[in-house]
Design brief:
The chain is α/β, with parallel strands linked by helices. It has 4 helices and 6 strands.
C-alpha cells in the first residue's frame, strides 16, 4: 500500500506528462525509513513492485540472456529462448534453479495479472520471453524448460486427456 501511495503521488503525475522516469532498483527503506537492500534480483523485484503499483500494461525485466531459456546455457549451450510461459511455470522454474528470475521478483505482477517480459539488454532487438497469467492456446506437448537444483527431482506432467484429472498427473 505504501508503494502504491508513493507511486501515485510522485511517479504517476510525471507519467501523465509523458515524461520518462528512470529510477534504481535494489535499494529500499523499511517502514521506519531505515535504508536497506532487496537482495538477489532486487532490481527485478523493484520493477515488479512499481509496475503493479502503477497498474502498468507490461513490466520489463532486462537481463543478459534472450529471455527464459529451455535450460541453463552454461550447461546446455544449445538452450533456446521460450516465447511465452505462464506465471506458474516461471515461478516453478525460478524456485527450482533457473537463475534468470528470483521466485519473488514477479509476485507483484502475478497478483495484478500484469504480463512480464524478460529481455536481453545486450541484444534489445530480441523478442525475449513474455510471462502471462495463463495460455489458452497450447502448442503440441513438449518439455518447456529444465532447471537444475541439487538433490531435488520434480516432474510435472499436464494432459487435457486424463479422465477426471484434466490438469496435473
Amino acid at each position: 500500500r505504501a508503494i502504491r501511495r508513493a507511486a501515485a503521488k510522485y511517479i504517476a503525475p510525471l507519467l501523465k506528462k509523458d515524461l520518462l522516469i528512470i529510477t534504481q532498483g535494489f535499494i529500499a527503506a523499511t517502514a521506519e525509513g531505515v535504508p536497506t537492500t532487496l537482495g538477489r534480483n532486487g532490481s527485478d523485484y523493484s520493477a515488479s513492485l512499481l509496475g503493479a503499483a502503477l497498474d502498468a500494461d507490461e513490466i520489463q525485466i532486462w537481463t543478459d540472456v534472450n529471455g527464459i531459456l529451455t535450460a541453463d546455457p552454461t550447461i546446455i549451450p544449445s538452450a533456446k529462448p521460450l516465447q511465452m510461459m505462464t506465471f506458474d511455470e516461471a515461478s516453478e522454474l525460478a524456485y527450482f534453479g533457473a537463475r534468470v528470475l528470483h521466485p519473488a521478483s514477479i509476485q507483484p505482477a502475478m497478483e495484478q495479472s500484469i504480463p512480464v517480459r524478460v529481455l536481453n539488454s545486450h541484444f534489445p532487438e530480441e523478442k525475449g520471453t513474455i510471462i502471462v497469467p495463463n495460455i489458452t492456446v497450447r502448442e503440441k506437448p513438449h518439455v518447456k524448460s529444465i532447471a537444475y537444483k541439487e538433490n531435488i527431482t520434480l516432474v510435472t506432467l499436464q494432459s487435457s486427456s486424463l479422465l477426471f484429472s484434466p490438469e496435473i498427473m
